[in-house]
Amino acid sequence: MVKSILFIPTGDKDHQSTMHRCYLHAEEFGENKILSKVIPIKRGKSNNSFYILFRYIQNLFTSVIHIPFYKVIIFHRRKDPFSLFLLFYSKIFRKKILYDFDDAIYMNQYFRMFDLMVKYSDSIICSNPYLASQVMHLNQNIEIISSPVDTENFFKRKVKNNNKFVIGWLGPGEDHYVYLKNLFDLLKINPNLKKYKLKLVSSLGSKKIFDLFSKLDDLEVDYGKKYWINFLEIPNEIKDFDVSVMPLISDKWSNGKQSMKLLESMAMEIPVIGSNIGYNKLIISNGWNGFLFDNQKQFNEKLEILYHNKKKRIAMGKNGRIFIHKNYSLKEINNKLSIFIDDILLNEK
Question: By three-state DSSP, how is residue 267 classified?
Answer without folding.
Answer: helix
